[in-house]
Amino acid sequence: MVHQEEIRLHTTRAGQMHDLTDQVAGIVARSGVQTGLVHIFNVGSTAAVGTIEFEPGLQADLPRELNRLLPPGRHYDHEQTWHDGNAHSHLQATLLGPALTVPVRNGRPLLGTWQQIFHLECDIKPRERRVVVTVMGEPGPAKP
Amino acid sequence: MVHQEEIRLHTTRAGQMHDLTDQVAGIVARSGVQTGLVHIFNVGSTAAVGTIEFEPGLQADLPRELNRLLPPGRHYDHEQTWHDGNAHSHLQATLLGPALTVPVRNGRPLLGTWQQIFHLECDIKPRERRVVVTVMGEPGPAKP
Amino acid sequence: MVHQEEIRLHTTRAGQMHDLTDQVAGIVARSGVQTGLVHIFNVGSTAAVGTIEFEPGLQADLPRELNRLLPPGRHYDHEQTWHDGNAHSHLQATLLGPALTVPVRNGRPLLGTWQQIFHLECDIKPRERRVVVTVMGEPGPAKP
Questions:
Q1: How many domains does chain C have?
Q2: Does B19 touch chain C (CB under 8 A)?
Q3: A57-103, pLDDT tens digit by residue?
Q4: In this structure, what is the dihedral angle of CA atoms A133, A136, A138, A143, given to the nearest 10 degrees?
Q5: Interface contact flag, A61 B78, Cβ < 8 Å
Q6: CB contact under 8 A, C56 and A77
């Protein structure tokens, strides 16, 4: 069984995080898959997905620390080509990665209590984002 | 075919690494899958999984370098909320990621000779960890 | 449905990047899968895969910034064992990760216009690389 849907996001600024957990759980429920995997993918090269405890402190910490490790305003060769000021956005998104896969059990994504699925906008201007969610697995409990 | 099991780990300190390769190979063998994928997932937001050459040098290097990039003891907004001293644990775990997927061929995880599957504890106190392993694929060789 | 093939790469230097997008798309086409996932995996512990806008600027930026974050020539415990000068290669590869999964729709990998699948050589000498590509899914459109 394969089920695929998209989540649309309107982002407004670099460092903005969205909690996708409930929407992903809804897609898993609609898929009918009880046991398997759910894959979450950001279409595009300047945003990322992953897991985090989704609370205001870490929503500030993660983008600030990424900006410290891969800062805006340094010399990047990407800027020599495009002059669009977002080389660090590309590098941050590549480092975190565009994809996450989470196990499905009993028809739900299997996450920790304080572990949520996030989307992080790394680009420097508002974007319309597509997040593709693919569920694969079986309509019953795992064997054995 | 979908097969799902859990590995339980008792971790004792930040930076502790476990080699999960043999346990994952055992789960793949029990699954009956010959060709497909095996997915390894840490439940919780302060530990990570990945691949590395599992030898004592890199077992010291990886957590030390993560502590250099995302150090304990800095100002993190997460601490203003929780005062539990593990904001860097969250950030390190998010950066490495909670999930790994490895191809399965001939009923075994397909890894390099010096490439093992690791679990890294990023939290600052002992934890009981659940690692969910999901195998998907076919009971025979890949077509064609 | 499961389909598995390998891409062989001859790499010549640290920091070399290859665009695997067309080869991965060819494997997806040959698989007959219309809706599902394609998984790309570097066999070995000193190279990585991911997504990036594959243009010359970022091809210089990504390996240079990884060398800044995890530099060659520092003290690494790995060197005490092996003296092969590539501890940073291991750490960079582990941080980026050996694996990437991309959704498949309409028989093609679903990527952004400026989002390509790359392979990054992190090791310090030429290597013969195996990249295993696994496609799983259904021969028709997703339901519903």
A1: 1
A2: no
A3: 999 999 999 999 999 989 999 998 888 899 999 999 999 999 999 99
A4: -120
A5: yes
A6: yes
Domain that includes residue B29, residue range:
2-72+84-138
Write down the residue that tokens 């599902």 correspond to: C36
Residue A79 belongs to a domain: yes
Our separate counts of H helices and E strands in chain B read 4, 8
Residue B119 token pair: 């679990």
Residues of chain B with Cβ-Cβ distance to A97 below 8 Å are 97
In terms of DSSP H, where are the helices of C13-76? 21-31, 56-69
C57 to chain A: which residues are within 8 Å by CB? 76-82, 87
Identify the CA nearest to B59 among candidates B15, B123, B115.
Answer: B15
What is the DSSP-derived secondary structure letter of residue B2? E
Give a yes or no: residue C144 inside a domain.
Answer: no
Measure the CA–CA gap between C5 and B11, rounded to whole angstroms. 37
Question: Is B78 part of a structural domain of the chain?
Answer: no
The beta-strand segments (E) located in chain A are 2-11, 17-19, 35-42, 47-52, 99-105, 108-109, 116-121, 127-138
Question: C94 vs chain B: nearest CA distance in angstroms?
Answer: 6
Bridge-based pairing of strands C108-109 and A47-52 is unpaired
Name the pTM for this structure: 0.97
Q: Which of C51, C70, C117, C143 to mutate to test the interface with A (most CBs of A within 10 A)?
A: C51
What is the ipTM metric for this complex?
0.96
Sequence letter at residue A69: L
Distance from CA of A57 to the nearest CA of C (A): 24
- CATH number of C11's domain: 2.60.120.460
Cα–Cα nearest to A94, from C49, B123, B7, C70: C49
Measured distance CA(C104)–CA(C85) in Å, rounded: 39
For residue range B25-67, list pLDDT tens digits in order.
Answer: 999 999 999 999 999 999 999 999 999 999 999 999 999 999 9
For residue C80, give the chain B residue with the closest CA. Answer: B57
Closest partner residue to A44 (CB to CB) among C60, C102, C112 is: C112
Of A31, A6, A15, A7, the C-alpha closest to A126 is: A15
Does B77 reside within a domain?
Answer: no
Which chain C residues are closer than 8 Å to A134 by Cβ?
35-37, 103
